[in-house]
Each structure stands twice: as structure tokens, then as C-alpha cells.
Request: fold
Amino acid sequence: MRLAVIADVHGNDLALEAVLSDIERLGVTDIVNLGDTVSGVLNAARTADILMARNIPTVRGNHDRWLVQKHPDAMGVWDRPAWAELATQHLNWLANLPATVTPQAGVLLCHANPVDDTTYWLHQPSSDGRMQLASSAHIEALAQQCEARLMLCGHTHLAGLVRLADGRSVLNPGSVGCQAYRDDEPFSHTVESGSPEARYAVLHLGEHDIDVSFRVVAYDHMRMARLAELRGDAEWAEALATGRLR
Ligand SMILES: [Fe+2]
Reply:
């Protein structure tokens, strides 16, 4: 079967629509969403509306959780603007999302990893604050409690596929809506895909093997960069315009 995997849409409805069109053009009908769907300075409510209408199997990201667990005063600069846009039905949808989903036997959906929704899995910041492939020991440790042959995760916004020692696979499709960001946890670092296009993945799941296409989809990213600028977030604007941060 073929499966389209989207993650980290972060309220970028234009990127989401471009990706959904690409999926349709490829004739893929099964889609899964790995969370962090609405948080950010863009169009949270419209993004939620698009995905809610499609009933796509979706897991809860850390930002999705914070949007329903935190008081607005305690929210960060990504979550507060999204929260202000969302209606009760959107928040109820987020509140009811599961942390993990098994859409079919042997496949696990999670946000950051199968254990928690914040610990980076396939990539980690190095001492210079740039992201690099995580050690085998780190990746294997987080897969230990999980029996799926294919584990799908998001959260780092970086596409990648890692094969475990026992032959199982961990895949991150990259981010649909946010190609670069800075974070202070566990220490200051920058994540960049390097270009503004939306990312996702299409998998062909055979009985014994997995064929993966990482997709890079152009959309009107400058329109979203201008929207971020209009809303006073220069960092989001730069990330949307270039996929990098100076
Ligand atoms: Fe996340």
C-alpha cells in the first residue's frame, strides 16, 4: 500500500494545500499526520479546518498539547497567536488527539519519538548549534519499547530515514510548513532544511521492504513570508522565504 506522511504543518495552510494537491496528483489516498499541526504565526484555524474535514489519522505534537494544556499567558510566541485564532471545535480536536497511532500492523505514528513528544530522535544539535544525525545508541534506545517495523516521526522538521540494527526503520518526512527555526532546548540551536519548499514523504509498504520518496513541493512561500512579516515575526518570515536563518 502507498502512504503519504505529513508532519509539522505549523499553520501553513498554503504549504499544506500544495502538498495535498501533490498527494492527489500521485493518486495516493492514504495520508497520516505526525502532529504540530497549527502552532505558529500563520493560519492556524484554516489549517485545522482543512485537516479536520479530511479525517486524517493524526497524532498530537508537543505544540498541540501545549495549546490545550497551557494557560495562554504561559504560551510561547508560536502557540499564543495560534491559540488566539482557534475556535472551540479546533481546540477540542487537538485535545482528543492520541500521542501515538498504529494505522496498520507494524507501523507506528508518533510526534518526536514513541516515548515522549519533545526529545529529538533522528537528529540532535551538536555543540556548535547545528543539527546532525543522532548516534545509533540514541536512536536505538528510543525505539526499544516499540515493536513496529516502521516508525514515523516528525518534530525536528528534518527529513531522514534511519535503519536500526535489527532491520527496522525510522522515518521523518520533514516539515510541511516550517523549514527553519531556532530553539533553546536542550541548548541554543538552529534547524534548517535549506530551501523554502514544503516537505513530506510517500511510502510504498511492501511485505518485506519499504520504498520511500521524499517529496519537495514548491508553493507560494513568499506570500506566507509576507504574512509572517505583517504579523511582526521576522524570524518566521526569513524561514519561510529562504528555509534558512541567518
Ligand atoms: Fe514538535
Summary: The longest strand covers residues 198-205.
